[in-house]
Amino acid sequence: MRNNIKIMGRSWNFKSHSLAGALAIMLAALLWSIDGLFIRPRFYILPAEMVVFWEHFLGFIVLSPFIFLNWHKIKLISKKSWGALIWISFFGGALGTIMITKAFFAAMDGQASFATVIILQKLQPIFALFLASILLKERLPRFFYLWAVIAVTASYFIALGQSGLDISTINWQHSAALFAFIAAFAFGSSTVFGKRVANHLDYKIVAALRFGLTAILVLGLAIFTGTIGQTSQLSLIYWELLGLIVLTSGAGAMFIYYFGLRRVSASAATILELFWPFSALILDYVFNHNYLNYIQVIAFIVLLVAFYKIYLLDKLKSVTFKAKVISGSQRGRVLGYPTANLDKTDLDIPHGVYIVKLQLAGQDYLGLMHFGFKDVFDEPVSLEILIKDFVGDIYGQEMSVTVIKKIREVEKFSGAEELQVAIKRDLSILADFSKGKNML
C-alpha cells in the first residue's frame, strides 16, 4: 500500500505525519526537562498552588485567541469531549502540575532525592498504557509493548545510574514520594483523555481550553487555601521566570504536545515522553559536567533504539464498530454522492476521511467514511459513509464497519463545488485501493 497519497494537489504522507507527531512529543518532553532542572526549582519557597495558577492563567492569555477564532466549533463540542477536557484540566493541569511541583519543592528541602521523584514519575507510562487499552481500545503489535517495557526500564537506569537508588529503597512516608506517585497517575491518565479529545478537536483549541479550565480550577484552590494572597511575594525575577515557563514548558510545550498527540497513539506518546530523563541527562552533562557511567551509556543507547522501534510499531490494529443508518440532511444526494448517516459519533479515532470495509445485509462493501465537523455547512460532528457500488434504501439497518486507512484530514472548503472535487479524488483513491488490495 502506498504511503503517499495525492489529495487536493498536496501529498499526504502517513510516515511523515506520524514522525512529526513523535518529534513534537519529544520536543515537549525536552522543554519539560529544562523546566524541572533549571526553572521550577527557583520557585520552591513559594506556594505551589499560586505558582501553578499564574503559570496557567498567563498561558491561557497567550492561547485565548484560538478560543475566539474557533468559538463556532467549541459550541458544538460533545459531552464526551467536555468530560475529557475537564479530566485533563483537573488531573493533568491542576492536580498533576501541583503534585510534581510539590515533589520538586520537597526534594529541594531535602525531604527526598530528585532521583526518588524521577523514578516514581516513570510509573506514568504504566498507568497510560493500561488506560489506553481499556478506554481507547488501543491495540498495537505485541512487539510494541515489548519495546515499551524496554524503554521504561532503560529510563530507570538513566535516571538512577549515579544515585544508587532502586524502587525498593524508596521511603513512601516521604511527601515527595506520594506527590510524585499522584503526579504519575494524573499525567498518565491525562495522556489518554488528552488523546480522546485531540482526536476530535484542533490541537490549538485543546491547549487553549485546557489552560483556561485549569486556571479556573487552581484559582478556586488557591483562594480556598489562601495562597493566592501571597502573589505580592512575586518579585520581577519570578514574573520573568513565569513568562519563560509560559513560552517554553507551559503553554508552549502543551501546544506542541497536543499537535503531536493527534498524530500518534496514546500508548506511543507516553513512551516518547520518556525523552524527559533522556534529555535531562544530556543537559546535566552539558551544563553541570556530570559524566555518564557505563550503565547509563548502555541505557542511553537502548532508549534511543526503543524510541525508533516505538515509532515504527505505532500502527493501531483495525477498529471495528456497529452502527445504525439514520436519516440525514440529504445533502449527499444533492451533491451527487449519497451517503449513509450513522448513529455513532463518539468513536475514539481522529476525525478524518477513511477507507472502510462494511458488512450490510450479509454483503461486503468498500466505502469512504467521513468522521468530523461539516465545516462547509457549519454543522456538528457526523459519521457518514459513501458505499462503493451500492444503491438501495437502508434506513434503520445496522452495519458492521472496519476502519482500514485514513486518507486525509477533514478540510474546510469554500463551497459545495470544492467539496465535490475532493469527493471525486477520494473516490479515485478508493478505486485504486480496491484494485490493489481487493477486500481485506
Automatic annotation (TrEMBL):
Q: Which GO terms describe its biological process?
A: riboflavin biosynthetic process
Q: How does it sit in the membrane?
A: Multi-pass membrane protein
Q: What is this protein called?
A: riboflavin kinase
EC category name: transferase
Mind telling me which InterPro entries this protein's record contains?
AA-Vitamin_Transporters, EamA_dom, EmrE-like, Riboflavin_kinase_bac/euk, Riboflavin_kinase_dom_sf
The record's similarity note reads: Belongs to the EamA transporter family.
Q: What Enzyme Commission number(s) appear in the record? A: 2.7.1.26
Name a Pfam family for this protein: Flavokinase
Key words of the record: ATP-binding, Flavoprotein, FMN, Membrane, Nucleotide-binding, Transferase, Transmembrane, Transmembrane helix
**Hey, what's the signal peptide range on this chain?**
none
* Residues passing through the membrane, by range: 52-72, 84-108, 114-136, 143-160, 172-193, 205-224, 236-259, 266-287, 293-312
In what residue span(s) does the Riboflavin kinase domain sit?
Answer: 316-435
Q: Which GO terms describe its molecular function?
A: ATP binding; riboflavin kinase activity
Query: What is its subcellular localisation?
Result: Membrane
| Annotated source species | Candidatus Falkowbacteria bacterium CG10_big_fil_rev_8_21_14_0_10_37_18
| GO CC term (a single one) | membrane
